[in-house]
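Moderator note: this is an archived Q&A kept for reference. The question asked for a predicted structure of one protein chain; the sequence and the answer are reproduced below.
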Amino acid sequence: MNLSVILPTYNERDSISSLITEIYEILEAQPLSFEIIIVDDNSPDGTYREILKEWDGNPKIKALLRKNEKGLATAILHGIRQSEGKKVIVMDTDFNHPPKLIPLLVNITDYFEIASGSRYVIGGGMETSRFRYAGSKVFNKFIHYTLKMQTTDNLSGYYCFRREVLDGLELEKIFFGYGDYFIRFLYVMQGLKHPIIEIPVVYEDRLGGLSKTNLKTEFFRYFASVLNIKFRIWKIK
């Protein structure tokens, strides 16, 4: 299996079928074998039922239902552990992350171990809120200087990596919490000298559903995560 695409969902019934269809059509045109893994945290809006209604029986679509655990990072980790691809892509499920970039991410990881989307390199940006764009950019600067990160967008969460970069790692120490897991992921990868390249991505308006991000709550969570990495002895293996 060449590629696994991991899609964590919670209340994405309005957009998930359209997203899977677009990703599927893009990958069908590529010379590779693939699977699309959806990990749903028992969404009350019926996201899981919607996936089964449209895609049940397709061997390339794997829908996983978690009833006893919730959380973005652990959902992603669950999907990774159930996947078989030599490369793994992780992305949001509300069309914030444009699927058209998937072939580029896959091709880049022929040469670099990790490819990550960035709103802050030339050509990147956000079509959504200017306030959120500016706030995220400032906080990424804080991450950059505090942790001496080489990457410009440490909150993107749209990335592709070769599976072997996870070998030997205690993944539970990385994949917990919400979007702050991605700060830990990039920090660990940089510490292990895995080459990371960023490509420009423009965040598009979400289709359907409501944002699960509480800005105030997540700011304090991310801020605490950065300080936790900075000031404690943190073993990455």
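Archived answer notes: The radius of gyration is 17 Å.
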